[in-house]
Amino acid sequence: MEHLEAQIDKQRLPRHIAIIMDGNGRWAQEQGQDRLFGHFHGVESVRNIVEGCAELGVEYLTLYAFSTENWDRPEYEVNGLMELLVDTIRRETETLNKNNIKLHVIGDRRMLSEAVNKELDESLEITGQNTGLNLIMALSYSGRWELVNAVRNIAADVEAGRLKAAEVDQATLQQYLWTSEYPDPELMIRTSGEYRISNFLLFQLAYAELYFTNTRWPDFRKKHLYEAILDFQNRERRFGKTSAQITNDPL
Ligand code: IPE
Ligand code: IPE
Ligand code: MG
Fold first, then answer.
1. Which residues are catalytic?
2. What class does CATH assign to 11-142+184-233?
3. Where does the secretion signal sit in this chain (predicted)?
């Protein structure tokens, strides 16, 4: 593992990594266990990956923890996940703080219970002055809803005369997203062998490098993170240009 970490070029780290933490349920069921058992073990991976990103010097880490669509899961699972969330935040805030990690939350917080919001507010407040890794939790998050919400607010500002319709451009839209303060993710990882975006950061992932692995989230550790980053560093990000333009090759 140290061998893998040593291969990473620290000067070319992705500034922002986004992860769809998928496969908890299957991981548990494959062992004859309840799905919640998988979510419980997924927390261990979160801890490990947050630590890994902080050690490397990654600036932003966005974790997709709960989608708007996940509210439609059986009540038992939703309640279990929410309890786990409250417990985890309560237990981990001190560690986040000690490691200079700043928590952020994106998503429709109105859908979350009072207990969850209270726990989140406390942790946001406690870690608010930290200057290390920015840990962005996507909770009750939907990329489409984020865009609709942004368009609505832009329309309201146009209506109120604060903004001119003709002046709305990509940068304007970006400023109305929940992620306005963060750079776009450069690397998006999805675990558990699913090849889809599932309503995650639809606008922000436009030019992200996508990395898919069969590893289930509860098995995902720093070693897997290093593999993803190394894969990222071996890619050529062209942004619509030709390879020669990128490498300054005279041909
Ligand atoms: C991801 O694991 C965690 C959440 C969506 C909350 P899943 O619960 O989706 O696990 P699978 O995909 O059913 O295995
Ligand atoms: C995406 O996983 C959401 C999170 C990881 C929080 P899902 O398991 O809910 O996505 P689908 O249903 O397979 O697309
Ligand atoms: Mg899933």
1. 22, 70
2. alpha beta
3. none
